[in-house]
Here is the input.
Amino acid sequence: MMKKALTLLAVLCIAMTATACVYRSNQQYYERAQLYLGSGDAEYAAELFAQLGEYGDSAEYALYAAGIAALEAGDLTLARTNLESIDPFKSSSRYLTYIAALEAELADELETALALYEQLGTFRNAHEAADELRTAIPEAAMREGRALMSKGEYAAARELFLSLDGYGQSAALAANCTSALNRAAYTAADKLCEAGDHLAAMQAFLALGDVLDAPDRAQRCRDALYEDLTQQAEAATLETAGAIIAACETLGDEESAQLAAALTARYGVNMDVLAAADGQPYVMLGQYPTGESGIESALLWQVIAVSGPEVTLLCTSVIDASPIATPTDLTLPQEAQSAVTGVTLPSAADLTSLTDLHSPATPYAVAQGVATEDGSALYWLRDSLENGMHPVATGSGLSIPQDGVTPGVRPVITLSLEEYTFTAGDGTMENPFR
Here is the structure.
């Protein structure tokens, strides 16, 4: 029995000795792998760590060392793959930043690479790479700027040189670009002047400042432009007056302002009439008996159509009664008589632009017996039916007048704004053009 116990004890001692030996062997391999990794032989260290399997953090170290070895061999893709799989183990995050910096540098994204290197400080001598890029970046910009100059792209080249804050010859090259741009601008301004576009030429010369004789050329263009505008003003029409006024305002001197003021006095309100035409503004023109006693007063009209400088005006009231469809004579101011193309009755087409056919009758028209329906006076249209009869308009639409009913007269006129000048008003019913 004693002999068996001694045998079992011997077996246990041998087993414990073997386990201790394995442990000491793994630990020795582990320390040896660390030593090789620390001395810079990452490839061999990776092999040693791989042999250790799951011993401690050997698996992570195996990938870590393999990533560093791949980085040293220039295989950035493999290095990134290994290090990303264990990040943030040890310095894997900083190695990944370093790899990103290398990739940016290889892609010629030097500013990005520099920023990444600067984040790393002295890691793997990143500060030295950063110092090299601080020189390489402006040199690359200088080469790019010169290339742009060779292609005639002086504006882009100048911006690039100016961004270098005086590095090397950048300031001198920027000045050369400025001179080239000024010469080109001067030539372009000169061509505008030769083509007779004095306004654009003047503005171009003014933009050049004191370059060459640009101020003198700008003044000569201004004088020529004013002479042109004076001639244009003498032959101005309602259609051309706006552009002439705008050009006078561009010159910005007293002579031009006076010329613009004269044109505005002649055409300004008429231009407002045309500009407001789509909104059917109101105008006041001519006279007719409106009071019950027959006293004349001014008539209010609404613009219902425009064609070039001519506007079609529809009176806002029925001003008289008539047993037949015929217009009536108005009292027009002397200056408007040649500007008005007749006085007529509205057509059905004239009324299509109205949202409401209702029309009040003046006290004079009521006294003359004009018929009303639903609070609106009936008024003749100039349209003629096949039987020769004329329809009338009511507040609810168009109809044929009944026997014994006397419709009214709601006149329509066409006015030439080239021949008649409105001088006041804003086109509202309370403040009509007049």
Notes: Residues 59 and 358 are 96 Å apart (CA to CA). The longest helix spans residues 2-38.
